[in-house]
Amino acid sequence: MNFSALLCLVVGFLAVVPVHANVSIYTTLAGETQVPDRSAREHFSCTDQVYAVIELDDYSDGEHQLSVKWISPAGEQRELTRYGFSVFNKEERIWAWLKLHRASGAGMMQWLDPSAGMEEFIGNWKISIAIDDVLVGESSFEVLC
Question: Which domains does the chain possess?
Answer without folding.
Answer: 20-144 (2.60.40.10)
